[in-house]
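sanity check this:
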Amino acid sequence: MTKDNHRQQFPALANKAYFNYGGQGPLPEPALDAIYEAYKRVQLGGPFSGEVGAWVVQEAMLTRRAIASELTVPPETIALTEDVTVGCNIALWGIDWKAGDHLLLSDCEHPGIVASVMELQRRFNIEVSICPLAATLNEGDAVAVIADSLRPNTRLLVISHILWNTGQVLPLAEIVKVCHQTKVKVLVDAAQSVGVLPLNLIESGVDFYAFTGHKWWCGPEGLGGLYVSAEALADLHPVFIGWRGIVTDANAKVLGWKPGSQRYEIATSAYPLYAGLRSAIALQHEWGTIEERYAEICRLSKYLWQRLSVLPDVECLRKLAPEAGLVSFRLTNGMPHKQLVDLLEKQGSMVRTILNPDCVRACVHYFTTEAEIDKLVEGILRQVS
């Protein structure tokens, strides 16, 4: 499929240059249709009926399988959630924390995760420290920084696979190896990596990997997941509990948890979204392998980075070409970044501000075009020249 034909299936791309995939990807037409047809089927069958109940079980199974195939893991290791933050909270709160335990957090994590960790610290009197990964964007060794920050009482490291503010890709397998040497588990915020990087979570050894479908997979908002490794499952207790995660007998007596990560699922969800996410993932397969899509993301982000690097009063945060689709830059002429973002949106180019570090972030996907990038760069140039 050509890129032009591929793009025609995304209604949101028809009248704008879109660079906010790291916030939310545009939903393709086939996924919209799949969601609509699923909702219609639920209503025609009766929302609470034996037929629809069996259909829901089947849809969940198919969706876990589709996700597991993308992450190269068994389907039973996947819990279906609403988004990344829910997945991270399942892992954060499911650990049996004791006063004095240590949690290590990077200085590039999303405020939603930072706030959760702060509440853990207040509630359980654990120790929390920050390792300075931001400083390793252009030089230094992220693995060494993490290793130096671990303590004898460290129980969990919380990091992102791709840092949401700068686009830095962390060497996950190496980090996990260092942590596991001292029995430290690793929780990954995978908001920016799922749908971008070729992934094999089994090989990486990671314990917990929380992701969403609405960013780089371009699926519907409100559906994501959490991978829990087989080794980490025994020590992660369900905290948010409902009928989807438990086993009962014929008299509704609770017997225990569902096998695998399904125990972390709670209750009623928007089940028609399952079909939408599977459709969105399947559509991406029509444009090459994940390795080919990732190579195209890197090629296009390099093109954007190169064009921005020669603009007056523009400084890219990375000194070398990006390793993923996030390209962050700052203005050096004193113009507030929000003002630039607002002006660009009026011109039909959509980017966003980041507060820490203070910068503008543009995201390119495999179906971004050079023409879109040229339009964005020309719009920036008009504001800084």
Q: What stands out?
A: The mean pLDDT is 97. The longest strand covers residues 154-160. The first helix runs from residue 3 to 7.
